[in-house]
Amino acid sequence: MKKYALAFAMMFSVGAYAAESAGVTGMVITNDTVESNNFIYPKNIHTIYFPNDPSEGALLLAYVAYKKTGTHQPSVEITDKNGKYVDRCTFDPTNVTKTPWTHTITCRWGGRQSDGGLNFTIYDKFGGKQEKIGELFLAAKNPQ
Fold it and tell me: Which of 17, 54, 61, 85 is 20 to 30 A from 38 in CA distance terms?
């Protein structure tokens, strides 16, 4: 039953966008990754975080699928519930020579975070244009 509740919750917390240059085929927050058969998997999936905890930390794991050949540059922007900038991960440009082409990215974050949740927004810069290609919301654990 927990698996179904998690899948249901993730359907509403992850947003994918019909961008021209790329899309996101999956993204999760995990404590670490595991590689098997040249593919990177999440180790333990996080569905919440503990605000104001200096030891809090994890990483965003995302699979970006490119739709066009050429040079792409993905990035991740992390904001709080009010849209205030928290952090950003920018990745080296990727030269896509054929499609389909899937790229795995990881963005580590952590430290004392505000309450109310965090938004992780993935962008792709292609041909001088930056497009939003995915978004994930991570809820904060309410104080007891």
Answer: 17
